[in-house]
Design goal:
The complex is a heterodimer of chains A (526) and B (272). With 526 residues, chain A is mostly helical. Helix content of chain A is 67%, strand content 0%. In chain B, helix 2 (40-73) runs antiparallel to helix 3. Chain B is elongated, with a radius of gyration of 26 Å. Classes of the chains: A mainly alpha (526), B alpha+beta (272). Chains A and B meet through helix 3, helix 7, helix 9, helix 10 and helix 11 of A and helix 1, helix 2, helix 3, strand 7 and strand 9 of B.
Chain lengths: 526, 272
């Protein structure tokens, strides 16, 4: 490693240009990774504000703050922003920062495309969020965009679809970049089965993205032609079928949930060994488990649609295939647990988030198993039980994974240790409130409260109040997260190259903060 | 001693508990689980739900138990030293792949028989066609010349307007009352044909254990029944997002003993 920390002073070869130009023109994977992460945090806060508006309205029965159509806009855009704006870009940001550092590459393989895909994403979201201000308001048919309802959207309709196309193109470009980088730019001696699990999880995620994003793009384009060009893909009066859209959507939508969770699996597989001070248990099984989950994710989509009136054989097939996903997922959970077994555990903030992930994601997995059983699903479908389920896998699942990653790699990025006490406060508040927020929603759903409603019968009041209190607690706790990050960027105790007690992997061999250019000469593996 | 370091969460726990205790006194904490319902079908689905719940609970006890044990036993602060040789164990890994596979298939098997029953529409004695509209329902008793619309009751509709000044808690069956309920006979297998006029809706009464989508241009079917000894009023709502007033198109079903139902039907035929 020829570079020291003073690299920034060496003129335009080693250091970035100053000011705004740096961020508009950079092709450096670390800069682009930072932009993705900052963007994702901003979207997490914006999507969170929408969630708080939803929880405020649902605090008690009756309509207090918003009218029903605006409520539907909030739920729809909250989901789109959180899925495509917060969780996915966060994992892309982590991929940008960490994959080259983990595999010993100098940068991503396609740096200009990398920058393009970020700015495409940025403008996609400006467009999507601007739909709140056009006649008819934002899309209000749910993030699933089911026709015919979605065809009742106003001026926002083509804007939302164009935004989806842009974010889809951005995701596909990001995925191509990851695959090309990993396939071609690994340091000599880093065979695929020596690669860190975070990079592995992203390699598989990238294939999922390339496989399903075009399907989604196709589906929304068919909506567009139905709307403007009198085609009848989804219009029964013209010989089409509204349910066809649901099949297309979920053929994309189910792999999409794994696109969000697989990188988190990779992160947890990095963190648990570090703070157990021993290597991951069953490395190869972990790789095969991710691959199996990815494969199975393509053949389970219609479990989101048990109530559309499928043939019996279809219901049985999708019940069984869905339950099979629990097998490789179980392997992962058992391997993580065994990694801790006979380890030497310490509980720094990344490990705390990883452990909370282990427990709470598993709870989300259990409710997923229950939902897979078609006869029981006839009761659960479209109730708050489903809302509780997917928030358990997405918030204490994917989002906790991302927060764990931030606390794990932040010293590597900034060169400073963050305030461990504040970070632990952030963890405990987040972990407690996330349960206050989402656990009661299981009860609400089972007791019969359907989802996507701004107002509810009075017997649901109590648990909704609890859930809303949890929601505000959770939301406010995230300000602490932002504060910890800002303070860490500005200063703090200097971080060593290894940062943690038991660092493992190439990223811990470069100084902290990681110099602007790393691994210009491929590292030697031993 | 292992929990000494967790003091930092205490204020938050105290806060959450304080929030819980300030809840209003009319709390109905019994609303925690799926209703058993009033038909063979709903009890079947309830049983399926409870089987799954208990199996998941058992798996949770084992896996969470192992995790918690590891977190307590193998702490660095207790002087635990990592055994860096523990990397693979083919037998163990094979076991926790195969055993769950068997458990999962065993879980799916009871659902087969239930699904076959759910999808079997034969032997129904009455067919009602249900059409979803934005935002009300239409019920047609096929072959009986009886048809009517069913909308949110006026009392709820007034109270639910923003700034109405009416406390929903003072409205009886808030959002669960209609101007004219569906009336069905008890002890009868009733076939429901479902469709919609504009967007997709879903017809769901939790006590009957079933919901199914009403899709414009297509005809879905499902069946319901109410135990002969359980006449009464059963309430549900539209369960598929259908636009602004999705939350305001309830379903009310009054189940009457057969003779009373026949009398009701005859009277309807006269008034039509």
């Amino acid at each position: 490693m020829a570079h020291g920390n003073e690299a920034a002073g060496h003129g335009n070869h080693d250091g970035p240009p100053k000011g705004l130009v740096r961020w508009l023109t950079t092709t450096n994977h670390k800069d682009i990774g930072t932009m993705y992460l900052v963007f994702s945090l901003a979207m997490f806060l914006i999507g969170g504000l929408m969630a708080l508006a939803i929880r405020a309205e649902l605090f008690q029965p009756g309509l207090q703050f918003v009218n029903p159509s605006f409520f539907n806009q909030l739920t729809t855009v909250h989901a789109l922003v959180m899925v495509f704006g917060a969780v996915m870009p966060a994992t892309v940001g982590l991929a940008n920062w960490m994959i080259p550092l983990q595999i010993g590459a100098a940068d991503m393989a396609l740096p200009r495309m990398n920058l393009f895909s970020f700015w495409l994403l940025f403008f996609a979201f400006m467009l999507l969020i601007s739909t709140f201000f056009v006649p008819g308001g934002a899309p209000a048919a749910g993030w699933t965009l089911y026709p015919p309802l979605v065809l009742q959207t106003g001026t926002a309709f083509p804007m939302a679809i164009f935004a989806i196309h842009m974010m889809g193109a951005s995701s596909i470009m990001g995925a191509i970049n990851v695959i090309v980088t990993i396939v071609n730019m690994r340091a000599p001696g880093m065979t695929l089965l020596k690669m860190p699990l975070f990079s592995w999880s992203w390699l598989i995620t990238a294939y999922l993205l390339i496989a399903v994003m075009p399907v989604f793009a196709g589906g929304v384009t068919m909506l567009l032609t139905d709307y403007y060009f009198q085609t009848s893909f989804f219009n029964a009066a013209g010989g089409g079928d509204p349910v066809l859209f649901q099949h297309v959507f979920w053929f994309f939508g189910h792999p999409e949930v794994y696109i969000m969770i697989l990188p988190a699996f990779g992160i947890i597989s990095e963190i648990i060994p570090t703070f157990s001070r021993k290597p991951i248990f069953g490395y190869e099984a972990m790789v095969y488990a991710i691959a199996s989950i990815a494969f199975l994710s393509f053949i389970v989509w219609a479990h989101h649609m048990f109530t559309v009136g499928m043939p019996l054989a279809g219901q049985l097939f999708f019940t069984l295939s869905t339950m099979l996903i629990a097998v490789p997922t179980g392997v992962k959970v058992f391997n993580w647990t065994t990694t801790m077994w006979r380890g030497s555990l310490s509980f720094e903030p990344p490990m705390l988030f990883a452990l909370a992930f282990l427990f709470l994601f598993t709870i989300g997995g259990f409710s997923g198993l229950m939902l897979a059983i078609a006869p029981a699903d006839f009761q659960y479908h479209d109730t708050y039980f489903v809302v509780a389920h997917f928030h358990y896998v997405l918030v204490p699942g994917a989002v906790f994974g991302i927060m764990a990653a931030v606390y794990y790699w932040l010293p590597k990025w900034t060169g400073h240790m963050y305030d461990m006490t504040l970070a632990k406060w952030h963890f405990w508040l987040t972990a407690i409130f996330v349960n206050v927020l989402f656990f009661p929603q299981h009860f609400l759903g089972l007791a019969g409260m359907q989802r996507r409603i701004p107002d509810y019968p009075t017997q649901f009041t109590d648990w909704n109040m609890v859930s809303s209190i949890g929601g505000f607690g959770f939301g406010l706790s995230q300000l602490l997260f932002v504060w910890v990050i800002i303070r860490c960027v500005k200063g703090g105790q200097r971080a060593t190259a290894g940062v943690w007690d038991w660092p493992h992997g190439l990223e811990w061999t470069v100084p902290s903060p990681a110099p602007y250019h790393t691994f210009e000469k491929a590292p030697e593996l031993h | 001693m292992s929990i000494v370091k967790r003091n930092s969460k205490l204020p938050a726990v105290a806060g959450a508990l304080a929030a819980l205790t300030t809840l209003p006194a009319h709390a109905d904490w019994s609303l925690l689980n799926m209703p058993k319902g009033v038909s063979e079908l709903s009890r079947g689905n309830y049983d399926m739900h409870m089987i799954m719940l208990w199996i998941c609970f058992a798996i949770a006890v084992v896996t969470f138990g192992a995790m918690i044990f590891a977190m307590i036993r193998f702490r660095k602060s207790r002087g635990a030293v990592a055994d860096t040789k523990l990397l693979h164990n083919a037998r163990l890994e094979a076991a926790w792949t195969l055993v769950p596979t068997v458990i999962l298939i065993a879980m799916a098997i009871p659902s087969v028989e239930k699904l076959i029953k759910i999808e079997d529409m034969s032997g129904s004695e009455l067919t009602v066609k249900i059409t979803g509209y934005q935002w009300y329902w239409q019920y047609e008793y096929l072959g009986k010349q009886v048809s009517f619309y069913s909308r949110l009751a006026r009392t709820s509709d007034l109270a639910r307007q923003r700034g109405s000044g009416i406390d929903p808690n003072t409205v009886e069956n808030y959002l669960l009352e209609v101007d004219k309920p569906l009336v069905v006979p008890t002890g009868t297998k009733i076939r429901l044909l479902l469709t919609a006029n504009d967007v997709i809706h879903a017809w769901w009464v939790p006590d009957f254990g079933m919901k199914r989508d009403a899709i414009p241009g297509f005809m879905n079917e499902m069946w319901i029944s109410v135990d002969a000894d359980k006449p009464g009023t059963y309430r549900g709502k539209c369960a598929e997002l259908c636009g602004a007033d999705h939350g305001f198109m309830p379903i009310v079903v009054v189940a009457k003993p057969k003779p009373e139902f026949e009398a009701w039907l005859a009277q309807q035929q006269v008034t039509e």
